[in-house]
Structures are given as structure tokens and as C-alpha cells.
Design goal:
Shape: globular
CATH superfamily of the largest domain: Gcn5-related N-acetyltransferase (GNAT)
Largest sheet: 13 strands, mixed
Order of helices and strands: EHEEEEHEHEHHEHHEEEHEHEH
Number of strands: 13
Distance between the termini: 30 Å
Helix content: 25-40%
CATH architecture of the largest domain: 3-Layer(aba) Sandwich
Structural class: alpha+beta
CATH class of the largest domain: Alpha Beta
């Protein structure tokens, strides 16, 4: 049986010394979130009897609000299950940290907690269930970049689209100025405005992330105007396509979404990352146009769980029953 002391830190000056390789659970991301308006960082720390950090997990609390319709609430997001020095007790430590975090966020009146991008589908299943979480089957797609060149995985149809678009004068490159990042952010906000899951971080967060070297804003440009773009995170020799937006409806013949994804894949390959993951392909419906689009680049679909917990007990019970397996 593993014994550990669990505490939750919400100020960067209180962070202890820790080893961190995963950017999604790093002190660096903690400080970025701390400086982002409407965002609050929580680092869950597990220490041994000597006071040394043996596991940690990072969660972001975000405030959401609108005038029409009027609402104000907070939600928390965790990417992955954290980092562990003691792999022999990984699930046990995770359960201890999950319990502490859930209790903390429930007391903070956080409406719901969401865990995504868990490394294995069944990891932490018992601990999630015992802490009142319920699972939704979710689709993820990973492209391998180390066994074949990306071009070899493309369909002939996608290859022709890319060649034709580049010949039309479209260019793809990394964002170079604050103004370009701001214009990408405007495109992103417009793209997600009518989508159900439309929460995106503030502009300041994208700006700070772009300065770390662990994130890039990649753009698709036509006649000096941004018609597509994506935000990518780079961690532990892997690339993650985080947010994607385009003006595909106003530029259908230029295929800005296709060129943006292709450039993200190329960029990851050229910088010798082993894989690129598409972080939010969505629910695994039989007919999912976005999944089919991403798969056209030669990736592999992976079905995993995304875990949710609502702080309002009767809502959580109803949803747990509705999504019971």
C-alpha cells in the first residue's frame, strides 16, 4: 500500500521543486494559467515521508459567463493523468490526487470537471467511478511520424487538393507577430461561436504560450489574409493539435482546413516529433465528417473515455445513469 501526503497549490510561489516532462502538467503552464484572466491553476502534489514530490497533476479552473443568455459558472479541465516518479503505485497515487482535487473543486462551486487525453482507456476507471465521475466514449486520432514520411500516408485525393491549393497562391507558415496571433484568435472565436463546446482560452494565453517554445500558432494565408490556422502544443517528443479554425465556407476551392492540418503534420515531422495527436475529434458517431477528414491524413483512430463530474449531485446522478455502460 502506498502512503503519500496530498496537497493542492494555487500560487506559483508555493510550488516545490519537481521534475516535469509533460507540458500539460508543468510549472511552466501553471504560471501561464496564473497570469491568464478568468483562469485559475491548481497543482495537486503527492509527496513521500521525506517531502519529495513523487507525483503531480495540473488542473485549470476557468470562469465562463455571458450576457445573452445570462450565466456565470466555472469549469475545470485536466489533460491526462499527471506525472509520476513512482510508477509502481501510479493508479493508487492518481486515486488519492483525484479524490483531493474533486473535493477541492466541489467546495469551490465548480460546475463540472472534465478529464481528457488519458493515456489508456481503462486507466483510473475504478477511481473515477468511486469519485462520482461518469465516462463518455470519445474519439482520438494519432498520426505516426517516425515509420513513414507523412506524404506516404496521404490519399491521392488529399495530395491533389494540397498541390492545387499551393499552386493557387496559398502559403502556410508559423505566426510571426502579435498581430498575426491576434488575427488568428479572431478567426478562432468566430469559428467556435456557434459550436456547442465553444470555450476557448483568452488571447493572452495564446500569446504567452507562443513565447514558451512549447506551443506554436500555424497559419494558412491567401493574399495576405489569414484563412486558416491552428494552435499546437509540443511535449515529450509528441505534437498535439489543440485548436483548429478556418474560413472553409468562404474559400472552399482553397481548402484552408486541409492545408492547415497538413502544415501542422509537416511541421511536427520536420522537427522530429514522433507522433501528432488530434485532441478533440469528438464523439465516435458512425458518421463523423470531421473524423473522416482527419483520417484522410493517414492517422489511426483510438477510442478512449473522457470523464465528467458535476458538482450538483442530482444532475450528476442523472447523467451518470444516462451514460451508464
Amino acid at each position: 500500500m502506498c502512503t503519500a501526503n496530498i496537497r493542492i497549490i494555487d500560487r506559483s510561489e508555493d510550488l516545490p521543486e519537481m521534475k516535469s516532462y509533460n507540458f500539460f502538467h508543468s510549472p511552466e503552464l501553471f504560471r501561464i494559467i496564473e497570469q491568464t484572466p478568468g483562469n485559475y491553476p491548481y497543482m495537486v502534489i503527492a509527496t513521500d515521508d521525506k517531502g519529495e514530490v513523487i507525483a503531480h497533476m495540473f488542473a485549470t479552473l476557468r470562469r465562463r459567463g455571458s450576457w445573452l443568455p445570462p450565466y456565470l459558472y466555472t469549469q475545470s479541465r485536466v489533460y491526462g493523468e499527471g506525472e509520476y516518479e513512482d510508477l509502481n503505485h501510479k493508479e493508487e497515487l492518481f486515486g488519492m490526487m483525484l479524490k483531493a482535487l474533486t473535493h477541492k473543486l466541489d467546495r469551490s462551486l465548480c460546475l463540472f470537471i472534465e478529464f481528457s487525453d488519458i493515456s489508456e482507456k481503462m486507466f483510473g476507471y475504478q477511481h473515477f467511478r468511486s469519485n462520482g465521475f461518469f465516462p463518455l466514449l470519445w474519439q482520438e486520432i494519432h498520426n505516426s511520424l517516425h515509420s513513414k514520411r507523412p506524404e506516404e500516408r496521404l490519399s491521392r485525393h488529399t495530395q491533389n487538393i494540397i498541390k492545387k491549393s499551393y499552386k493557387s497562391g496559398v502559403i502556410t507558415r508559423e505566426a510571426e507577430t502579435k498581430e498575426e496571433i491576434r488575427n488568428f484568435y479572431r478567426l478562432l472565436r468566430g469559428f467556435y461561436r456557434m459550436k456547442l463546446r465553444r470555450l476557448i482560452p483568452p488571447y493572452q494565453q495564446f500569446l504567452k504560450l507562443s513565447k514558451t517554445g512549447k506551443a506554436k500558432i500555424l497559419l494558412t494565408i491567401y493574399k495576405n489574409k489569414i484563412i486558416g490556422g491552428c494552435a499546437c502544443i509540443y511535449s515529450e517528443n509528441n505534437a498535439y493539435l489543440w485548436y483548429l479554425a478556418s474560413k472553409a465556407k468562404s474559400h472552399p476551392t482553397l481548402h484552408p482546413k486541409t492545408l492547415t492540418v497538413w502544415y501542422a503534420i509537416q511541421y511536427a515531422y520536420e522537427h522530429q516529433y514522433a507522433h501528432i495527436s488530434f485532441m478533440d475529434v469528438g464523439l465516435p458517431w458512425k458518421k463523423n465528417p470531421f473524423r473522416s477528414f482527419i483520417l484522410s491524413f493517414g492517422g489511426k483512430p483510438v477510442a478512449k473515455y473522457r470523464w465528467f463530474h458535476f458538482s450538483i449531485p442530482f444532475i450528476n446522478r442523472i447523467l451518470s445513469w444516462f451514460y451508464s455502460e
